Amino acid sequence: MTASAVDVCVVGSGASGSIVAHEIARNGFRVLVLEEGRTLLPGASLATVQSGFDDALVPSPAGTLTPFGRPWSVSALGGGMTLYAGIAFRYRTVDFDARAHVAADALDPVWPIDYAELRPYYEELERRMGVARLPGADPLEPPSDPAVLPPHEYSPQGLLIAKAGGRLGRLPFPTPLAINSLPYGGRPACHCCGPCNEHLCPTGARADARSPFIDVPLPPGALTVALGSKAVHIGLGNVSRADSVEWLDTVTSQRARVRARCVVLTGNAVQSAALLLRSAQSAAPNGIGNATGMVGSGISFKISGYVSGSTTLDRLPARSPGGPFSTVAMSDHYLDDEAPSGLGGMIYEASPAEQAVCDGTIALRLHFLAADQPMRKNTVRLANSRDRLGLQKIILEYWTHPLDKRRLGYLSRRASELLAEAGVKKVDYQDSNYQFGRGHLHGGCRAGVDPTESVVDRWGRVHDIDNLYVADGGFFPYSGGVNPTFTIQANALRIARRIATQLA
User: Fold this and answer.
1) Which of 77, 131, 260, 326 would suit a FRET pair with 242, their CA atoms being 20 to 30 Å apart?
2) pTM reported for the whole predicted model
């Protein structure tokens, strides 16, 4: 086993890992990024690459464990941002303190920070990579600086949805997108070539994990990225300090170890919790950071679903279908007294891959999603069985709370009403299979002020380890009701600045 030394070892290269690695490296520190995946080839889509991702075990209705769990958004250089839809909501004020809306048996949903603390990082990242939005159009949008890019025009589907929403008294607005509506940041405007979600962007109009750093120079040799390198164990120098990360070459199975002054976990909420659990040793017999059994607890995936159908057009749309996955959204049922617990969720256009008008009809589809209850029993743990690399498999134990089932039904009915108003005669419902993971991974290394009920503090530092941080969605004590990528990025930048200060 070979060993080397760096200032910081970052585990994962996605939305949070890229932010942390670049921010610390630009300050002159030596950073090694361990990335289990590799670079996606041109033309890649989720359908073509997901068979190569490791699965997780999930409980079946019969109580047995089945290999249907999805512990990755995307395992590749750049992580989930390689194939995401570019949806760039900011979390709302209520997402940072939802105590008035969660079930009595839920874990504490309060973040140890609020929107005001995170706002400057949202603003900086928006300027760096570009977000196309219409300020003030979303009734629940938190305070923000002026937009750097105008919103995208509604797609033909989005226009039908927006008009239907308006007739129902709702307030549709352009979906905020990290996709250029005009040339920006050295990247072209969107060509509306579609399909968008779950596909690589062929033009670079959609921001990815590299976009905030195109013009950020780094000192020579400051940043190294090791592809095909899976972190398997964090070594402790003493009870309160991490001193090394052991990793495995996924092709040769050769092991290596890197010494580091600081370790930052940015794989995703599931993978970071699993790595802490796999790092059991004499100083941490139940896994690092797990003295009170909280590592893995409170894992959340967001409750969600889709409704779809077709409607007839009086005339062909002025612009051809295609382009962004979502151009219109509605937050009318986010804070909603009629929703169970008074907290509903977001509804937005989620156009199917095939958007063409056929025989005068056009397909419409809506996605509805909401934060789920952060439950202690919803957890990441390790199995006795082993995966292809000889590591203990991941178990995702997740059950939808009865309150969330009612909230999901409420949102489904509201979304169905929208489609019916848009002229859809037969509305079909599709499961998102959120309960198996993959998208919207949060919790598992939840942040909080009480070490008995959380894993990390407000800076993402593991409570009992001085130099070990979690900066991905695992930090989230409450999943929030909108897409998390932009918030993961903003929080990672906040944590990275803190780490750079501590290292100096």
Assistant:
1) 77
2) 0.97
pLDDT at 313: 81
Mean pLDDT (the chain) is 95
DSSP state of 113: S
Q: Is the pLDDT of residue 2 over 60?
A: no
Token pair, residue 155, equals 């797609």
What does the pLDDT look like over 325-355, one tens digit per residue? Answer: 999 999 999 999 999 999 999 999 998 876 6
Closest C-alpha to 185, from 144, 225, 133, 125: 125
How far, in Å, are 57, 351, 373 from residue 363 at the CA level? 35, 8, 33
SS (H, E, C) 332-364: CCCECCCCHHHECCEEEECCCCCCCCECCEEEE
Contact 343, 327 (CB under 8 A): no
The three-point CA angle 329-332-335 to 5° equals: 125
Cis status of the peptide bond prior to 195, with omega within 30 of 0? yes
DSSP element (H, E) containing 156: helix 156-167
- What single-letter DSSP state applies at residue 380? E
Give the mean pLDDT of 208-230. Answer: 93
Tokens of 78: 């750049």
CATH fold for domain 1-84+108-121+207-294+377-398+441-504 = FAD/NAD(P)-binding domain (3.50.50)
DSSP-derived secondary structure for 27-90: TT--EEEEESSBPPPTT-BHHHHGGGS--EEEE-TTS-EEEEEB--S--BTTGGGGTS--B-PP
Q: Are 184 and 211 in contact (CB under 8 A)?
A: no
- Residue 293 tokens read as 């059994």
- Exactly one of 22, 199, 233, 440 is catalytic; which is it? 440
Q: Which residue, 184, 72, 114, is CA-closest to 487? A: 114
Window from 2-11, 161-170, 307-316, 381-390 with minimum mean pLDDT: 307-316
Catalytic status, residue 442: no
**Sign of the C-alpha dihedral, residues 388, 248, 287, 376?**
negative
Query: Would you state the pLDDT for residue 193?
Result: 83
Q: What is the pLDDT of residues 495-504, one digit of tens each?
A: 999 999 999 8
Q: Where are the domains of the chain?
A: 1-84+108-121+207-294+377-398+441-504, 131-206+303-370+400-436
pLDDT in tens, 116-154: 999 999 999 999 999 999 999 999 999 999 999 999 999
